[in-house]
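tool_call: predict_structure(chain=1)
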Amino acid sequence: MSHPSGNVRLKSARVAAGYVSQQKLAEAMTAAAPELGIRGLSVGVRQVRRWESTTPPWPHPDHRRLLTHLLRQDMEQLGFTPPHDQGAEHRAMVMTGTAVGLSPVPRLTMAPTQPDSVGDDYEAVTRSHRRLYWSVAPVTLHPVVMAHATMGIALLPETAGATRHRVAAALAESCLLAARMEFFDMRQPEAANDTLVKALQAASEADNALLGSAVLAHSAFIPGWAGRRDEALERMVAARTYARRGPASTEFLAWLDAVEAECETRCGETRTALNLITHAEDVLATESEHPNPPWMDWFSPVRLAAFKGNTQLKAGHVPQARETLTTVLEELPESDDKQRTVILGDLAAVEAADDRPEAACAYALQALDLLATTWYATGMDRVRDVRRTLSRWQNEQCVRDLDDRLYGWSTTLSALMR
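tool_result:
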């Protein structure tokens, strides 16, 4: 199989998995070989370069085992064609369900059959899902978005030209939305990582560098929240590289700073994080040459301030964190209840750090009130973190009242169900 632009599927999967260079993947394959019982195997960067070329050769069996093990996709998904199947039928399968991995597509087409209007229609549903995210429970919306993504995968081989690019971009956005729900709302980082790989593949089909940057930046959250700093920063390097191919708005660039700042905060590097946030504030203060992408509805100056307040809290700057977070709570849009649960949780943590258990419990209870109607796993994590810091006041009435709510029938069942 020939790839006019090189084997972008392998390259996308490599970068999404955290291997920002061909050398990094070669080193990882060499290191993983003994773990799979493969002895005496050494992979060089020249070999990886051949696999990412316009005419990638079919890898040897041991190489195939290592590639699928490290990148979590089969060989066809990674852009390789088995030597026994070089026909046009296989080429038509490149972005079907079996190629991307969401679901198989029963029918293959040899030529575009969909009208140009399918691009408008598919984009319209994607936009609707984007708006629904802020009010519909993730357990309800997530399967709908995944089904929409599966349909997009089926549509791709039936479209061509500009219509194909539009469907691919909307598909990338749908996969990104699904991954956001998996990571932030449902606390499923492994599933989110797999879905982000699919989002990056679709972004490459659309040749949309900015969407690719957004996907890569989201993928940095996964190792960042797990404390794997080097891996998170490598993914941010990739995200910034794609953003330079833009055109990126100042808000998008500031968001990249905020993502990296959160990863640094989670890894204990609060000084670096605060410097990044200061840089983001400076970026937002400049006039943007380019408009903000319409799909980027998760960031704003007040969201940047929310990042800042959390970092100030983790850095031990309690008075500053209280001031920042109180202002965020006042300025947050009324419809943004998910983020409000996080801010309330952070304010509760501020009061706990200042030895004010009653105030801490009051904020935590407000967060639980919202979580009862607007579930957000990240917000619940904040409340649970606060409760752990209140152990010194275990026998205080305010803490007991918080426990009654935190471990009530409805809250406990809700958490388990979600």
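agent: Residues 1-85 form one domain. Proceeding to next step.
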